[in-house]
Amino acid sequence: MKVSLSSEVSAALAAHQPVVALESTIIAHGMAYPANVETALAVEQVVRNHGAVPATIAVIGGKLKAGLSREEIERFGQEGPNIMKVSVRDLPFVAGRGLDGATTVAATMRIAAIAGIRVFATGGMGGVHRGAGENFDISADLTEMTQSNVALVTAGAKAILDLPLTLERLETDGVPVVGYRTGEFPAFYSRSSGLKVPMRADSPDEVAAIMRAKWDLKLRGAIVVANPIPQADEIPSAEIEPVIASALAAADRLGIRGKDITPFLLGEIVKATEGRSLQANIALVKNNAKVAAEISVAFARR
């Protein structure tokens, strides 16, 4: 199945100009309206301000789309949870049934790769959930990273996850994890996790060179560009960790599992921090969009 491209994205790809993929789950399920729409439009503008074309990705009427109109973003923001959250396994269902779908990191990566978009900015990627030894809850994002040739710019994995096991799984799967101007794996809300990254890059050109080298070597799959939240916006791990633990306990009491757990936990954390975590989330997404645009510009030059 082909990807339906907006005229702006189509022209940029045809001319080998820089394009940055953006997910739609953050619009429908990551924030409440109208903050979700305001953030989505602001992130697209950040990409443009740094020399690239934004391609927000979703499934609309069963069609895989890269590059949404303002009206489509507004609708996804307003309808929110009524729109299906779509990972890779769900793509045949929504496409076959002609449904709408807000794409997760995994589904966005797959659609971006099909379209020929090589750089993707998100907030935080999925990974191995805490307690995975008992519940086997591991995000499809990790599996997709072995399949799609996309550089994923992310503020580390979501802090609600088991970060050491997530890094271990990425190593096993052969996915490069590159710290962007850092030697430490960021923890979403926090710049520091206490975990070292196996490699580091200090400029967009260095990241672009790693991307080109990996795919020229016929090594299939993604590159994780771990980009810490700006220092002014972070919530230190010692402060946020008790909040996360409380949210996880609440999810366990309520029996919340699978794809419902991340939106629930993020919502609980927003309430517990009185909105501070939401502001941190918005700041890190914008920062990732900036870095992704700069990397996309550098990669296009190659």
Explain what the structure shows.
The protein is an alpha/beta fold. It has a single domain (4-301), classed as Indigoidine synthase domain (Indigoidine synthase fold, 3-Layer(aba) Sandwich), CATH 3.40.1790.10. Helices cover 48% and strands 14% of the residues. The protein has helices spanning 7-14, 25-30, 35-49, 70-79, 91-97, 105-115, 132-135, 140-144, 163-172, 204-216, 237-254, 261-272, 276-301; strands spanning 4-5, 19-22, 53-60, 63-66, 84-86, 101-103, 119-121, 151-154, 177-180, 199-201, 223-226. Strands 1, 2, 3, 4, 5, 6, 7, 8, 9, 10 and 11 form an 11-stranded mixed β-sheet that branches. Helix 5 (91-97) links the parallel strand 5 and strand 6 (101-103). Helix 3 packs parallel to helix 13, helix 10 crosses helix 13 (276-301) and helix 11 packs across helix 12. The protein is globular, with a radius of gyration of 18 Å. The two termini are 28 Å apart. The mean pLDDT is 94.
